[in-house]
Amino acid sequence: MSIQQFIENEVKSNDVVLFMKGTPQFPQCGFSGQVVQILDHLGVPYKGINVLESEEIREGIKAYAQWPTIPQLYVKGEFVGGCDIIREMFQAGELQQVMQDNGLAGKTHAQA
Amino acid sequence: MPMDANEIERLIKSGIPDAAVTIRDLAGDGDHYAATVISETFRGKSRVQQHQLVYEALKGQMGGALHALALQTGIPDA
């Protein structure tokens, strides 16, 4: 399986995928950590893929989305954005809308 | 080799001629900047597309010499 097929498979078979540096438990970059905090705040389940474990994934994902940086968030197979865009969307309430539109609204805080 | 603010501004303007660019050096290390880019060419484009235009103007420096660029894009107020 080529790296692009691997990425395509991960992106298409998981509702929410975050290609990041480090893991959700231990982000190893401030920008990745910010997106993890936002997703955890929303309570939306997601899969974290640590690009530091594979140079091939780290470079392959940049080509895949035509996006030069990490992290990268995908929802239902669609590239949503990097750290700046996710933060901007979150502050504008748009990220919550994207999750709801895709039936992915997380646990509300009361149930956390 | 880190980049300096003027170089970033020059590159962005070479790729997006009508862009109004403001750059803040976040860490003083030539590696961490915040930039706001306002341009008519962004009108009707998604945020991802707007940011991609800026990255293209930066000719591959983004993610390489330029480690971190906190980017905000927008269209001029009518």
Helix content range of chain B: 25-40%
On the 0 to 100 scale, the average pLDDT of chain B is 90
Helix content of chain A: 40-55%
CATH class of chain A: Alpha Beta
The count of domains of chain A is 1
Query: What distance separates the N and C termini of chain B?
Result: 39 Å
* SSE pattern of chain B: HEEHE
Q: Which sequence of strands runs across the widest sheet of chain B?
A: 1-2-3
Radius of gyration of chain A (Å): 13 Å
The two chains with the largest interface, and their residue counts, are: A-B, 15 and 13 residues
The number of helices of chain B is 2
**How would you sum up the global shape of chain B?**
globular
The N- to C-terminal Cα distance of chain A equals 38 Å
| Share of β-strand residues of chain A | 15-25%
Topology:
The complex is a heterodimer of chains A (112) and B (78).
Chain A: H1 3-13, E1 16-20, H2 30-42, E2 47-50, H3 55-65, E3 72-75, E4 78-81, H4 83-91, H5 94-101
Chain B: H1 5-15, E1 20-25, E2 32-38, H2 47-57, E3 68-74
Parallel strand pairs in B: 2-3
Antiparallel strand pairs in B: 1-2
Provide a descriptive summary of the structure in words.
The complex is a heterodimer of chains A (112) and B (78). By secondary structure, chain A is α+β, with helices and mostly antiparallel strands. Chain A has helices at residues 3-13, 30-42, 55-65, 83-91, 94-101, and strands at 16-20, 47-50, 72-75, 78-81. Chain A has one domain (3-110): 3-Layer(aba) Sandwich (Glutaredoxin). In chain A, 46% of the residues lie in helices and 15% in strands. In chain A, helix 2 (30-42) links the parallel strand 1 (16-20) and strand 2 (47-50). The model of chain A has no long low-confidence stretch (mean pLDDT 93). Chain B has a single domain (5-74), classed as GMP Synthetase, Chain A, domain 3 (2-Layer Sandwich), CATH 3.30.300.90. Chain B is globular and about 35 Å long. The longest helix of chain B has 11 residues, at 5-15. Chain B contains two helices and three strands; from the N terminus they run H-E-E-H-E. Chain B is 28% helix and 26% strand. With 78 residues, chain B is of the alpha+beta class. Chain B has a three-stranded mixed sheet with strand order 1-2-3.
